[in-house]
Structures are given as C-alpha cells and as structure tokens.
Amino acid sequence: MDALKFHGHRCWASVAGVRIGLAALRALGVKRSGGTQLFGVVEIGEDHGGMCFGNGVQYATGCTFGKGNIIKKPLGKLALTLIEKATNRSVRVTYKPTLQKQIGESAFMRKRGMGIMPDDIPLEEQEELVNLVWDAPESDVLTIGEVKSYEGDWFPEIMGFTPCAACGELTAKAYLRVVGEKQVCIPCSGYER
Which residues of 158-183 are buried (b: 16+ CB within 10 A; e: fewer)? Predict the structure, then answer.
C-alpha cells in the first residue's frame, strides 16, 4: 500500500487514517483534494500514534499540512472532520474501539511497547496488524456521521512571495506586516505574529 510507503513504516493507525479518509470522501461524494478545495480537522494528539493516523488521513484525502488544508485539534482521538469548502458540507468519521484488544495484544504492538522500532519487527507481524485493520468490515470499525453544514468562513488563498524591505528575505505575502510605508517580515516588524 502506497500510504504505508508515504508514512515510512507499516502500522495500524496509518491504515485506520486511510480508511477514515476514504469513508469521509465517499460520504461527501467528493474526490481527493489536489488543491485546497477540502479542509480536514484531525483530532489526534501530538504523539507517535496520532501522527501515524494523520499521515493516513493526509494520504487518503489529499489534505496536507504542506498545503495548509488540514489542522490538528489535539484531543487524542482517531477522528476526522472533512469539509468541502465550496459548500461548507462536512462529515465526521471516527474509529471504533472494536479491534483494540486484538491490536494491543498483537506481536507488533507488544514489540513496539518494548521499544523495538517498526522496521526491526518481522514483516509478517507488521502485515498481520495492517491486514487486521484494513480487512475489517467498515461497519465494525468506523462511525460515519451525518453530512451537515460546517459553520465557518474561509479566507481567500494569498499567493506569492515578496522580499522583506528590511532583511531582504523572501516572505509569503500573507506574513508581511506594514511598518511605516514598508512591507516587512514578522521578525523585522517587531510583532509577535
């Protein structure tokens, strides 16, 4: 699976993220975002398992931190709210705890708990866990919410870069500040943000 290559190792949380992302796309009746027409809110935390989930969501939906059309709401949940910006339609999809006992007792997770790196765990043990999550019936592992309206405004995308009038470094236009009559970067402006 290319998503696991993108993530860097085989793990169940990445696969859960892919499944949730694909289910959200299907529920909204939209395609993967090549631009910024979709916006994602992942409810993961800042720690390892959450990041694995986030990579799966990014891969499936095309919402990426690099494009700025996904954010983390650090609640520690394997959940995604996907929004179609043109219509403000949204859907929230969560991962059910159905397989948690099997996941926790798997050879892969026991070894991860001992500090063994994913790539040092035998391939068959990695694939056993990935396949468990990938092959489980969707209704057993996902809760797909109803499609509803998302209350929010979208700022227009500000394109381009301009050299800071003070330091000369190339700065995205959205991050320039006006000081006197000059457009300067945030550090040169004296503003915190």
Answer: eeeeeebbeeeeebeeeebbeeeeeb
Give the architecture (CATH level 2) of 2-149: 2-Layer Sandwich (3.30)
pLDDT tens digits along 7-49: 666 788 899 999 999 999 999 999 998 888 999 999 998 766 6
Structure tokens at 97: 């705890």
Strands 89-95 and 142-144: antiparallel
As assigned by CATH, the class of the 158-193 domain is alpha beta
- Tokens describing residue 58: 């990014």
Supply the pTM of this predicted model.
Answer: 0.83
- 52-83 residue pLDDT tens: 899 999 999 999 999 999 999 989 999 999 99
Q: At what angle do helices 48-61 and 12-28 cross, to 10 degrees?
A: 40
Residues near 68 by Cβ (< 8 Å), separated by ≥ 6? 36
What are the boundaries of each domain within the chain?
A: 2-149, 158-193
- CB neighbours of 102 closer than 8 A, spacing ≥ 6? 132
Between CA 115 and CA 99 the distance in angstroms is 22
